[in-house]
Amino acid sequence: MFFLTILLFSYTQMSQQIQKTTANAKEMLSNPKLVPVQGTLNVVMKQNVTLSCLSQAGSPPVRYTLFKHNQQVSAVNRSDSTPALFTLTISSASDVGEYKCKAEYNSSSGGKYSNSLTFTLIEPISKPVLSSPTSQAKKGQNVTLSCFSENGSLPITYLFFKGKQSIPPQKTMQKREAAVIFLFLDSLSDFGTYKCKANNSFPNNSKYSNSFNFTLAGMNEKVTTVDKLGSHNIQNVLTMQVFSQIFCLWCSNYNFLNFKKKLKF
User: Fold this and answer.
1) Domain 29-121, CATH 3.40.50.10320 — does that match?
2) For residue 32, cis peptide bond before it (omega within 30 degrees of 0)
3) pLDDT tens-digit profile of 8-57?
4) Taking the domain 129-219, which CATH number applies?
5) Confidence (pTM)
């Protein structure tokens, strides 16, 4: 009887030890890793994104819970070692995060948290505006061109064009300010139409500016003077032609009257 009691006591101790060892093993969860499945944290409005949460260490089943700003969003129980997937829709600026996930055993009161993630909301750029302090210049003059897109996520990259020919290098602006280039109008070929193009990380959203023309100073005045002189000369010619026709008619009538007088005699 005494031996049976000792055996029962030993079995109880062993059973408790096994349970304790099992419990300790289940607490060996590692901090889960939270990553975007699409590989980037850049998002656009109305986009669906998927987050993956997985604890590399620990034994399933594991419960994964996703939080946004410390508020529970969703929870998934995994009975194997595959990651928990959470699909979200970016409907407003508040949906960019911050996000975290928690891994825990159902029987455990503890748990471990992942790294945090915050999305970056990418906005499309607006049509850039190309401008310069002057539109008329002389040969050999230095001028500036400014290209600026008022809206759109930074950074914004600008590229200038003369006609269809690009003017390297392109300029990437990290702040909300215009890209500026300096031009030396050395020959008549440097005058003409310029444009610029702007783009950012928003997909398929490159936009071109308005056209801007540099004209040679003095040409308008010369053309205007020539036009005025030409108009004046044309008026003189027309006046002379009218007077010539009137004089010819008078001469014809005069000759006819003289002819009639001679017939009477």
Assistant:
1) no
2) no
3) 455 556 555 544 445 455 558 999 999 999 999 999 999 999 999 999 98
4) 2.60.40.1930
5) 0.60
